[in-house]
Amino acid sequence: MECPNCGAVLDLANHGDLVFDGRVWCDRCHEYGRELIRPRDLKEIQAWSSMICQEFGFPPVLLEENPDPAVSRQDAPVLMAEAEHRRRSIRFYAPGYRLATLCHELAHIYTGQDHSRDWAMMFAQLVAWVKTRIAEDRGPQGFRARLSIYAGVPQRVY
Ligand SMILES: [Zn+2]
Ligand SMILES: [Zn+2]
Fold first, then answer.
1. pLDDT, position 86
2. How many angstroms is it from 105 CA to the middle of ligand 2?
3. Ligand 2 geometric centre to CA of 153 (Å)
4. pLDDT < 50 regions, the chain
């Protein structure tokens, strides 16, 4: 697999250095949009998960919080969770409630595969779909897909 922009050979084992968005890119050529990597509540991620599963015709997936707080305290990479293919469950490690993480793990469950080529294509496809929903601000019911441009900007204090 090669980056469609610069032609670099992509090593799926080092998926943390790659960007899965429609296609698979090296991280020098492409990056995730802010909405894909900003942390969200578990409830919100659950709602996205149901929406994605429904759209792609997959049975629902169980999302769990990591029960061991010691693990969360380690220096967690931005995308952190693990999928149990057989149990169809995803366990998130804080700070792991991100849409990109969800798509990564759902792709494992949908394909039943590790970091394979099929998994990579599925991950990229899920991200692309989520992105269109964000662009249209059509998130799951009860949640805004996009933050207002003012959210997160500190209010000026006089
Ligand atoms: Zn590249
Ligand atoms: Zn993985």
1. 81
2. 6
3. 33
4. 78
Predicted local confidence at residue 69, as pLDDT: 60
Proximal ligand: closest to the CA of 10: 1
Report which secondary-structure segment, H or E, holds 79.
Answer: none
Separation of CA 129 and ligand 1 centre (Å): 22
- Each residue of 75-92: b (16+ CB within 10 Å) or e? eeeebbbebeeeebebbb
Give the Å distance between the CA of 149 and the centre of ligand 1: 29
Residue identified by tokens 């793990």 is: 105
| pLDDT given for residue 149 in this prediction | 64
Distance of CA 28 to CAs 11, 66, 86, 146, Å?
Answer: 14, 31, 35, 25
Q: Counting ligands in written order, which one lies closest to the CA of residue 7?
A: 1
